[in-house]
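ligand=phosphoenolpyruvate
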Amino acid sequence: MSIQYSVISSQIYILGPCSAESREQVLETARELSAFSCQFSVPFIFRAGVWKPRTRPETFQGVGEPALEWLQEVKRTYGVAVATEVATPEHVEAALKAGIDYLWIGARTSANPLAVQAIADSILDFRFKIFDLKGIFVKNPVNQDAELWLGNIARLEKAVYGVGCKVYAIHRGCGHQPCWSMAHKVRLARPDIPMLLDPSHMSGDANQVPELLKKVEELGLDGAMIEVHAHPEQALSDKAQQIRPKELGDLGSLGALGSLEDKELNWLRAEIDELDERLWDTIAARMDVSKRIGEWKKEHGVTPLQPERYQEIVERINELTNERGLSTDFALRIWEQIHEESLKQQK
Ligand code: PEP
Ligand code: MN
């Protein structure tokens, strides 16, 4: 059975490896992606990181400038636009001179407004000399800060004002978690800026990519950036999250056609799901501490239920709920249940 891809014509898909590792790896991945693109009529922008902002210095840091030639070769050979990450004005200069069509600003750089401003200034310096730049993708910062993300978008919009280069947002989550509440704020503040999803960095896990991609349609997003590698098991960075080009074929539909209206309820539900997850994380962490308290009490011959501690917690709940405008009665009912379970765990 053939799979029908239906991509909204304005949707953008950025596909390619985390890092450009070698000429062969870049061209092989681009060739397979190009075959996928023709088979399913899905246009794409080819991505590969050249300068990699890695956590540890002993890991692969990217090939640097020489890899830009491989991207040029992809552009010439397969006729696709190419994108790379920039973190400094020097990167911008090298990428623009190499005719890179799209730049993206990564989550780590996005956390530093001075770095983003330096990038914006260097684009401004170049914009009358280089007309090829088609767009800049701004990922959310690593920390959950919608204002900073919006500020970065504004810095870049100012730099490209008046030239035909668009600014886009990419929601890549914080760590390996989606952050729908932050993305929703940005979506509501700037509905005019296209927002893409990066399910690869959002999950850090290739197996979770198909499920997360469903959010493109559910939330009316404008496309996705997906890490794709011809041989993910050999990848020099982000090995666990990259999928094979042929696995794109198994995804069934990359953001199927659908009305972009009435997505608000889905956004709110995504926020609720995110908060529920945090709630259960907190409850699980609380139970864990509670068990450790139980062990300590056993060792020291202290009874599990201590009336003065009980009273202290009740008073604290009173304060915490008043500060937050929540009903204390309601909070105490929930807490009684949690406390009961904690005592069971301590037995
Ligand atoms: C990347 O896209 O390869 C990357 C480094 O992503 P992020 O900035 O989202 O971690
Ligand atoms: Mn990556």
